């Protein structure tokens, strides 16, 4: 299993993504964490396509809404790509779209077989954790039902065993919600990674590399 999990895009560790995933190639870009925001969704996805192209990748959007109830088809499509890139947005909406399309099951199987690498930032990283409780302080679970037609889920996919709090001390979180959530987790003894926008977690097989500063506990 190969995972690159960050707070914001490549963080300060683009070299580690290349080492993990191989030379730039085709990338399936999943932007469904932005599905609750139709007015900005297209521009949000484009904002990821542009830097990926600049770094030599060939990004192609893969919209999970096209695969609702078609898990086998989705798994075959995902297997065409050496790398999957999952952008940020609302973690609860992304989790719901993973469940509706079967992306949670398909990606777990493909990653277990080392058929591809997974790079996710913000919501795209948080969705792989075991439990989403607490993230309602930074993402709104009430956006799930009108967007996805199902109740929000509070279980993550569980491919990593700690929770993730992105955007620590970040201009992308001017209200400091991430800092407060990390403080709450520390007070409650909840194991987590608190990531600044420079930080990343790299999983390569059984090896976990924590490219993080002192904020994480």
Count of helical stretches: 8
Q: In which order are the strands of the major sheet placed?
A: 3-2-4-5-1-8-9
Order of H and E elements? EHEHEHEHHEHHEHEEE
Report strand %.
Answer: 15-25%
- Structural class by secondary-structure content: alpha/beta
Shape: globular
Radius of gyration: 16 Å
End-to-end Cα distance: 23 Å
Query: Which percent bin holds the helix content?
Result: 25-40%
Mean pLDDT: 95
Largest sheet: 7 strands, mixed
Given as residue ranges, the uncertain stretches (5+ residues, pLDDT < 50) are none
What is the tally of beta strands?
9
Which keywords apply here?
two-stranded parallel sheet, 8 helices, alpha/beta, 217 residues, 9 strands, globular
